[in-house]
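Technical note accompanying the year-one report. For the benefit of new consortium partners, we illustrate the data format agreed upon in the data management plan: each record pairs a sequence with a structure-token string. No post-processing was applied to the example shown here.
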Amino acid sequence: MDSPARNPLLADLPVFEPGWVWLVGAGPGDPGLLTLHAANAISQADIIVYDALVDERIMSLARPGATVEYAGKRGGKPSPKQRDISLRLVELARSGKRVCRLKGGDPFVFGRGGEEALTLVEAGIPFRIVPGISAGIGGLAYAGIPVTHRDVNQAVTFLTGHDQTGLAPSSIDWAAIAKGSPVIVMYMAVKHLDQITGALMAAGRKADEAVAIVCDATTEKQRVLETTLGRAADDLRASALEPPAIVVVGEVVRLRAALDWIGALDGRTLESDPLGTRHAATETRLA
């Protein structure tokens, strides 16, 4: 019997050449959110250098004989230094390996992919960037929270909750963000949530503004805490939730009452109009 023909789309994916490094986004957790380019990279690589937030099941895509090397970085825990990881990529590529640097989310969204790529450029190593779905978008979608909604916001700000020192970023203009961004999505903000929420309220955001904290987004362990800006830090402490987490501030959080599609699969009853906009819009059209 003839073997089935390979799908032309898959046949046209790029060949991973020896001596190259591909910086690959693995998405926010669910292996089903890998891109075709990511799966293609993993399946061809000689060595996969992966982060802590990459689902272990993704490694089943590796070809027989491939080496898997852990380089996980987790806040507050012993981790390889970023410079050492970057230099390791150079070392492996110079030895003729096809190196897949597999990173949670997207390499260029708070993933230090830019730092690693610049090291490769300095060393003369050829590389490819494979974007991934960032947790600040895909993770919130799994929680039933859109980062934009026409009735709520025409802008959104993505920021990190800590800088290179591990402290809350001192370079962020919290007053400008509080005033100018109706929706704020924060990565790695749990540790300094008290300070961050206080800064936003001091800059004029209301204490009763909706907030959601999504932990272990898109995985079987996903948990969502719905709270308010004024109560977020206390409610988080009272819960059993831990990082990794995405924090979102803004009225889009209220849409979860209608859009929690995972909750609906488990029998949750969804609201049809959580923002109360549908009736108002109808009245406007009739007027």
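Partners are asked to follow this layout when depositing records. Residues 82-94 form the longest helix (13 residues).
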